[in-house]
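Problem: given the chain below (114 residues), write out its structure.
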Amino acid sequence: MTNYHVTLEAAWLVRDVETADDAIGVAISEAGKRLNPKKLDFVEVDVGTTYCPACSEPFGSVFIAANTALVGLVLEMKVFDAESDEHASRIAKSVIGKALTDVPLNVVDVEEFD
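Solution.
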């Protein structure tokens, strides 16, 4: 059995915000509020990065229209004693998905560690 570090991305909708910084703060706070009661404080939450297709400059994954933001969050957790990287990603999606119901999740990266 092997240990894995699994990175997921989530699409988080935030209403009634005017700036990207406000949207990021609200999204991270709301995600934390939903993870902590489930004892998932070991899940790291951060804003994702998107790259400009024209100039390749990185920027925060936030899009705002009509005071509503779509924030791309990155969720990271360690999975211990998984049979494979596919198994580790299923475990991570299951654990995080139970706390963040109705939030789209996608596996971004799975890395083995000792």
